[in-house]
Amino acid sequence: MIDPNLFVILLFAAATPYATVGHGGASAYLALMALTDFAPEQMRPLALVLNLFVSAIAFIQFRRTGAFDLRLFLLFAVAAIPLAFLGGSIDLGGAWHRILLGAVLIASAAALVFRPQLAGTETHPPQPLVALPTGAALGLIAGLTGTGGGIFLSPLLILMRWAEARTVAGISAAFIFCNSAAGLLGQGARLDALPGQTPWYVGAVVVGGLIGSGISATWLPRKALIRLLALVLVIAGAKLLGT
Predict the structure, then answer these.
(1) How does residue 218 score in pLDDT terms, banded at 50, 70 and 90?
(2) Which of 22, 104, 139, 144 is close enough to 84 for a disulfide, judged by CB 3.0 to 4.6 Å?
(3) Measured between alpha carbons, how far is 25 from 241 in angstroms, rounded to an integer?
(4) What's the pTM?
(5) What residue ranges carry the coiled-coil annotation (predicted)?
């Protein structure tokens, strides 16, 4: 197990760049926990708790600037939230959970690195028959793995031209918060599984979330940081798939 003080620093370093794009950072927290041999029963609830704080901060910050579309959010969230609750209630067992989580971490890295930049293009909202099952799938993955699903929703919204780039962060933050809460409730709010250092971990990501969501993206070397985060995700995913 890694020294708790060092883990606090790593959590802060992960939360800050994630918050700049409206993400809670669960995939990075899970990657760090996988690399530092956290107990499996601690990983999902801790990642979801940390996700709740950072995504809430990010949503508040982006909502203040008008970067949110309630109708588009609901198109995905209505089906995602109950499926996130269902996913959170399912225990896949150690081996299957490691395989799914490893695959999700590697896919998350790809979503970060290859996130398309299509700002300024004309957008159109998706049809409900497309958005609802998409949200359901992302919600189920979020609940099963302890993530919020936003790391997949963000590039999808931009790639499919369903939303303007400036509104994607706000939508993703709200989506992540709701799925994280539902996933945690689906696990029976297993706060008893959380490590004793959790308040310090929460403090680290809260500070990171405030800084990341409160500054202009142009002030942060985001590309380099995101690539570093993607590398961590790939290493952790490979570690999980190889065990």
Answers:
(1) very low
(2) 139
(3) 21
(4) 0.84
(5) none
What pLDDT is stored for residue 189 in this prediction?
A: 63
CA 74 to chain centre: 18
CA-to-CA distance for 136 and 130, rounded, in angstroms?
Answer: 10
Helix (H) or strand (E) holding 5: helix 4-19
Q: Domain total for the chain? A: 1
Cβ atoms within 10 Å of 234's Cβ, excluding its own: 18
d(CA 28, CA 23) in angstroms, rounded, equals 10
By residue count, the chain amounts to: 243
Q: Which domain holds residue 160?
A: 4-242
Residue type, 98: R
Q: Is 182 exposed, middle or buried (0-12, 13-18, 19+ CB in 10 A)?
A: buried
Q: Give the rounded distance of the alpha carbon of 12 from its chain centre.
A: 15
Q: Is the pLDDT of residue 168 over 90?
A: no
Top pLDDT among 80 and 91 is at 80
Cα 77 to Cα 28, 216, 231, distances in angstroms = 22, 27, 29
Measured from the Cβ of residue 221, the count of other Cβ atoms closer than 10 Å reads: 11
Q: Is the pLDDT of residue 114 over 70?
A: no
| Closest alpha carbon to 155 in 143, 141, 165 | 165
| Cα separation, 159 vs 23, whole angstroms | 17
From the CA atom positions of the chain, what is the Rg in Å?
16
Q: How many CB atoms lie within 10 A of CB 42?
A: 15
Measured between alpha carbons, how far is 74 from 34 in angstroms, rounded to an integer? 33
Q: Which helix (H) or strand (E) holds 159?
A: helix 150-159
Who wins on pLDDT, 210 or 115? 210
